[in-house]
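ok new one. same drill as before - structure tokens go in, u give me an amino acid for every spot. 521 of them this time. try not to just spam alanines like last time pls lmao
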């Protein structure tokens, strides 16, 4: 990727938060790379080099800054569009698409890249070329850098031991963890994990724990206890609106929103877990996520899921500039510059919620969801969360297929749609798989009996992360544009063409404005 180095220098010198995650600053004299918002005094211009990704910086031999902590940087970049193939591949890598296959052997990593390329609709060579062009590194190098930076974050923010950190960061074994560190540290001879850490980060693991951003004291955290992590974003962030959205749809037994915090239960392959998300300290662009998990290797996927649910990687400035070309949307964006598009915790769960919400109000959809959880949701030991109100898990496809839904207060045809959705999800693992194009995702969903265009677009937006999805048949959207009367779906779609590739964000602004008007009426 070709960066405008003078523009990058000006942004870094101003510590402009709008560019956090768009590029990284490599300092030739110290061998360190930083975020554009690093509080350290910037060196002279001729001592700086700018790269598009943390992977490119580490590939060039630079180590991450301990003050600005690149691992907390939001995963945004100036080149990214919603439907970008690279963006979709990055999202899959964040969810662990290259972790299992690349755990122990280069050949396995190659096979994983093939599978990744297939999921985003490209050949393996073409995907590699796109990564080199836009990120300055290969898919495997990007995945390894993510794991290494996540390991660094776990070391600084938790009391986990090194063996636990290796597994939690997505490495298949401690041996592989040490091998990657040695390779990244460019060691000419074999060395221990601790020695490689010194070469890669400039200090021993024990000193990182005592750093200003680390945990100063206390016993090491056992695997069975909670882990609190910081999740960075690019400000502004409208936390109140995000929390209000989640509160209005929170399902009893699974979700709680109170005291400015969001909590929920969830399932992993190793068993149930819980999470609590709250704002970070004032002035710090981070959310704090406290997770309780039965197996630490689930952490990378859970972090990626949380970033998706809370839309932490959105480039709100680029989105606002684009949508602001429409006078009606310009007013809405100006009123709520930090508005995000909430994602679903799980694609299947969001698809079920979409069916429950067909042609009913948000409140009615929530009531139906509560009934469904009571009918088919597995029970959880309240001791897991310490709160009896988090006592259920959302039903998986097999549990929904086996459930008798006659007790749900909804038409028989819609109950049949729920069963059809669950059966289709069981039969075809690719049905709700992320990574493909929006058109492909909508086409797959439309093949399910009872799924119309509105439901398919809504699930693509909330559950599959397609921010250009746009359920134009939604009544609230049709009455929210700057017309005194409700507009036809065809007219709305024509108007929304100018909002691509961010139609989902336009929809979120319109929904929010419509809700505010109705509350004030």
């Amino acid at each position: 990727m070709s960066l405008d180095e003078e523009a990058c220098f000006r942004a870094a010198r101003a510590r402009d938060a709008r560019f956090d995650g768009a590029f990284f600053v490599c300092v030739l004299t110290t061998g360190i790379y930083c975020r554009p918002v690093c509080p350290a005094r910037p060196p002279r211009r001729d001592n700086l080099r700018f790269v598009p990704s943390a992977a490119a910086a580490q590939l060039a031999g630079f180590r991450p800054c301990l003050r600005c902590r690149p691992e907390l940087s939001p995963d945004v970049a100036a080149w990214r569009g919603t439907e970008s193939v690279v963006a979709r591949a990055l999202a899959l890598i964040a969810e662990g698409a290259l972790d299992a296959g690349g755990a122990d052997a280069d050949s396995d990593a190659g096979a994983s890249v093939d599978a990744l390329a297939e999921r985003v609709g490209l050949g393996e060579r073409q995907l590699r070329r796109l990564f080199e062009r836009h990120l300055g590194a290969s898919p495997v190098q990007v995945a390894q850098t993510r794991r290494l930076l996540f390991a660094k974050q776990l070391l600084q923010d938790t009391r986990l031991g090194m063996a636990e950190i290796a597994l939690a960061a997505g490495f298949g074994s401690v041996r592989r963890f040490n091998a990657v560190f040695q390779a990244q540290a460019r060691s000419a001879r074999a060395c221990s994990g601790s020695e490689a850490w010194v070469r890669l980060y400039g200090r021993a693991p024990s000193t990182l724990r005592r750093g200003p951003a680390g945990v100063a004291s206390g016993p090491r955290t056992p695997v069975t206890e909670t882990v609190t992590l910081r999740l960075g974003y690019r400000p502004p962030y409208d936390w109140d609106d995000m929390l209000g959205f989640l509160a209005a749809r929170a399902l009893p037994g699974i979700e709680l929103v109170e005291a400015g915090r969001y909590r929920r239960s969830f399932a992993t392959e190793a068993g149930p877990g819980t999470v609590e998300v709250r704002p970070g300290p004032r002035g710090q662009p981070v959310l704090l996520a406290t997770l309780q998990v039965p197996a630490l290797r689930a952490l990378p996927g859970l972090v990626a899921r949380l970033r998706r649910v809370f839309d932490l990687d959105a480039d709100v400035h680029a989105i606002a500039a684009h949508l602001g070309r429409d006078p009606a949307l310009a007013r809405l964006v100006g009123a709520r510059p930090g508005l995000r598009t909430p994602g679903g915790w799980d694609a299947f769960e969001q698809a079920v919620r979409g069916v429950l919400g067909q042609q009913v109000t948000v409140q009615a959809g929530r009531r139906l969801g509560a009934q469904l959880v009571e009918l088919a949701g597995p029970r959880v030991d309240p001791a897991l969360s310490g709160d009896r109100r988090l006592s259920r898990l959302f039903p998986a496809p097999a549990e929904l297929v086996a459930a008798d839904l006659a007790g749900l207060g909804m038409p028989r045809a819609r109950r049949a749609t729920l069963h059809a959705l669950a059966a289709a999800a069981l039969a075809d693992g690719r049905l709700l798989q992320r990574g493909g194009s929006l058109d492909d995702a909508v086409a797959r969903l439309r093949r399910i009996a009872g799924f119309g265009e509105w439901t398919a677009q809504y699930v693509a937006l909330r559950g599959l992360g397609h921010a250009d999805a746009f359920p134009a048949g939604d009544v609230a959207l049709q009455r929210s544009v700057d017309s005194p009367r409700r507009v036809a779906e065809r007219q709305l779609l024509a108007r929304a063409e100018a909002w691509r590739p961010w139609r989902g964000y336009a929809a979120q602004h319109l929904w929010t404005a419509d809700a505010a008007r109705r509350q004030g009426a």
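The longest strand covers residues 271-279. and btw Strands lie at 24-27, 32-34, 48-51, 63-64, 227-232, 255-258, 261-268, 271-279, 286-292.
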